[in-house]
Amino acid sequence: MADVFPLDYSRARADFLAAAEEADARLKTFFLPGHRGPDGGELCIDTAYVGPPGPAKLLVTVSGTHGIEGFCGSACQTGVLLREGVAKAAAGTTTGVLLVHALNPYGFAYLRRVNEENVDLNRNFIDHGAPPHNGAYDAVHRTLVPVDAAGFSPGELVANLTALRDRLGPQRLQEAVTRGQYRHPDGLFYGGHTPTWSRRVFETVVAEQIAGAAHVAYIDLHTGLGERGVGEPIFRGGRDADALQRARRWYGDALTVSEHGTSSSTPIVGNTATAVADGLGAGSRLTAITLEFGTQPGPEVLLALCADTWLHRQHPPKDAVRSDLKRLIRDAFCPADDARWGEQVLQRAREVFGQAVVGLADTCPAE
Asked: Which among 115, 112, 184, 180 is positioned nearest to 146, based on CA atoms?
């Protein structure tokens, strides 16, 4: 499993590119301007496509929307879709497979969930002229990001978070924190005040490599929510009337819906699937999910996010990435030293990718 779950972004990218070339995939690279990784290397979004030109049906997978979560997503793309040949087997005369690798390369390289501007990309796909307001986050911000924190005290932060959780309840606290907020640039789940570089690149990918397909199966790979090692397919859209029922046919009873209260994720705004839905032509179909792999209990994940936010407020990125505190966020989003977790992830990815391939095959393009 060690060669599938690499230790850093540079190795993940090198493995992905090598596997893509072996699979005869068509590659395209977008370089993040003005930034380098901790090792001085380039930071890039790479796409790999296997299949015919202008496919009627298209399976799209995205890794690293949340930076550090890219270790898992990259492993699924490189290990299952490319090395195991799932992408080649799925591609045909009318079907293609597109892999978008490391949508947030900065966060991937610096072991952060957010990008170079502290922006959560999965909250950035909104109209920034009229951003949604999350008043509940305003009330908890200073507990999550203390103003006068000269040093990091895990015990004090845990006590404060526990008190907040006891006062609001787990569900209300999760909704307040994770829905997305647009008033606190130093805070958690900040959606930004303009479209990020990653968003602009992804919209270009949608326009040039996704739009035109009659039916798109979309899978955004994530970690950090739900039962450890379980891959939960969370419905993220499709704007035709049959989208949800179609997703249920594909993914079965495991499919959850945040808006129905059945998911480990509360409802969010501004996710990547929005860009795909916006970019598809009239009459096209989208069946979009987040595939979410559980790691640790929610309070531990929140502690890791708060600790990482403090760390990067206090230290330059190259110092922060070498801090012992990074162990918290690695364990919260990529516990790859747990062999059983890694095996569960790859097995579940095989299942879900297979369900998407079968679903596309059984769906008429004009349905």
From this structure: 184
Cα–Cα distance between 222 and 64 in angstroms, integer?
A: 8
Alpha carbons 187 and 178: distance in angstroms, whole number: 11
In degrees and rounded to multiples of 5, residue 234 shows phi and psi of -110, 125
| DSSP structure class, residue 23 | T
Strands of the sheet containing 231-237, edge to edge, are 26-36, 42-50, 95-101, 57-62, 215-228, 285-294, 231-237
Phi/psi for 36 (5° steps) reads: -130, 160
Phi/psi for 80 (5° steps) reads -100, -55
User: What is the length of the chain?
Assistant: 367
pLDDT digits (tens, 9 = 90+) for 214-238: 999 999 999 999 999 999 999 999 9
Lowest-confidence pick of 63-77, 137-151, 210-224 = 137-151
The structural domains of the chain, ordered by start, are 1-367 (3.40.630)
What pLDDT is stored for residue 367 in this prediction? 43
Whether pTM > 0.90 for this model: the answer is: yes
**Per-residue burial over 337-358, b = 16 or more CB atoms within 10 Å of its CB, e = otherwise:** ebeebbebbbebbbebbebbbe
**294 within 8 A of 279, measured Cβ to Cβ:** no
d(CA 333, CA 295): 6
Task: Please provide residue 347's backbone torsions phi and psi, each rounded to the nearest 5 degrees.
Answer: -65, -45
Q: Name residues whose C-beta falls within 8 Å of residue 247's C-beta, 6 or more positions apart in sequence.
A: 233, 235, 238, 255, 287, 288, 289
Angle 59-196-147 from CA coordinates, rounded to 5°: 125
